[in-house]
Amino acid sequence: MRRMTDGYREIGGDGLVRWFAGANTENGFRGSYGDIADEARLERLYIIKGGPGTGKSTLMRQAAEAAERAGFTAVRYLCGSDPESLDAVVLDGRIALADGTAPHPLDMRYPGASSSLVDLSPFWDAGILTRASGEIRELTAGKQGAYREAYRFLSAAGRMEEELVGLAEDCFDGAKAEGFVGRLVKRLRRERKLGAGGGGILRRYSHAVTMRGLWKTDAVTVGTSVRFAVEDAFGTSRLLMPMLAEALAGVGAGPVCGIRPVGGGIAGIRAGDCAFTVGEAGEGDVPIRMSRFVRREFAERGRMRLTERIGAELMTAASDALSRAADCHFGLEAIYGSAMDYDRMAAYRREVTAEIADRLSER
Fold this sequence. Notes:
Strand order of the largest sheet: 2-6-7-8-5-9
Helix content: 40-55%
C-alpha cells in the first residue's frame, strides 16, 4: 500500500548534520529561521542578501568546511525548496550565516554589535539585470503561480493527514503504548544511553517537499549507535512518536525531533546515543512493532487505504507543481549568474570566511 510518508529520498551518509531550514506545508511555507538565526543567543549572525544564483550557498558551504577543518562543528540547514542549496549554517553553536532574502527576510537586531550584513549586490552588473527585468518579472510570476498550485495540493494532503491521525486514534491502545514507552525510557536512562540535553523538545524539519522532489535527511541518526526502528501499523506511529518525545523530555534527555512538512508529524527522534526512526528495521536496528499496540477490531482498513492513497497522490501532485516552479527558479539563477563578477565575489568570500575563522578561534 502506498502511503503519504513514502517516496522520500535520503540525503546524508557522510556524517554531516543536515536539517531543512523550512518546508512547504499545508499552511504555506514555514521556517525555523527565528530559532536558527536567533541573534539574542548567538555571538555573531551574518545575514546574506543577494538574488538567486549569486553565491549565497557557496559562501555558507565554504564557511562550514573551513570551520570543520579547524576542528569546529557545523550544522547545515538546507533550503526547503531546493535541497542542493543552503539557507543557513551554524558554526560551533556560536556563529550563524543565514540567507536573508525573501521568502525568509532577516533584519539585524543589533547591527554591528552582534550581526553583520553580507551584501552580494555590489558584485552584479545592475545594467544586465535592468535589461532583463521583463524576463525576471515573468519568471518570478510563473514561480509564484506554481507555488500557489502546490500549496493547494498540500492543503488537501493536510486534510488527509488529519483523517489518518483520527483513524489511528480509533484503534490505538494508548495505555499499553504508554506503559511500554515508560519502561523503555527508564531502561535507556538506567543504561546511560540518553545523556542530558535539557527538558525541552527541539523540532527541526527532516523532510521536505521540494522543487527537486521529496527529500529527507539522516540528521536524527548521525552520531548515534543505538537505533530503534518504529515499524508502523495502521498509522499508529503518528501517535507513539509524540508520546516518546514527551517521555524523553520528561527525563531531561533533550530530544531532537525530525518532523515531516505535512501535518508536522514526527518522523524521527534523537536523544543522546539513541535514535528512533519510523520505518522497517534494518541490520543492527532494534524493532518496535506497532502492531502490538493496535486494537484490530477498531481498525478501518478500507478507509485507511483510501485516505493514504489519496494523500500520496496529492503529495505527488504538489511535487510536480513545484518542479514547474523549478524551471522558473533556475531561469532566474541563470540571469543573475550571468550578471555576477565571480572573481571579485570569490575574493569577498575569502575575506568573510577569514573573518569568521578569526571569530571562531578567539575562544
